[in-house]
Write a structure and sequence with these properties.
With 88 residues, the chain is mainly α. It has three helices and no strands. It is rod-shaped and about 75 Å long. It starts with a helix and ends with a helix.
């Protein structure tokens, strides 16, 4: 069985993209996927760093460490979360 028989429509020979042909929609899709992955990687790094800082704070809860962890969460993780939801 050929692909055209599976979908039930006959396509004239020579029409459509050739095997191995990359058009602009493929490049646009690849750029969109790369942007999404980069955004999520930044968020992952921020969350891991935040978890380490909060773990360090919980290990020895000193007032200054707690303030540092709160400041880190507000200044660094907060904008990353906003970026994550905005970029999708």
């Amino acid at each position: 069985m050929t692909v055209s028989k599976l979908f039930g429509d006959e396509q004239p020979p020579g029409d459509g993209p050739q095997p191995g042909h990359i058009d602009s929609s493929f490049v646009d899709t690849a750029r969109a996927i790369a942007s999404i992955c980069a955004t999520r990687m930044l968020l992952l790094i921020a969350v891991i760093t935040g978890a380490a800082i909060w773990g360090w704070t919980i290990y020895d809860p000193v007032r200054d460490r707690l303030y540092a962890a709160i400041a880190f969460s507000i200044v660094f993780v907060g904008p990353q979360v906003v970026l994550y939801y905005r970029k999708g």
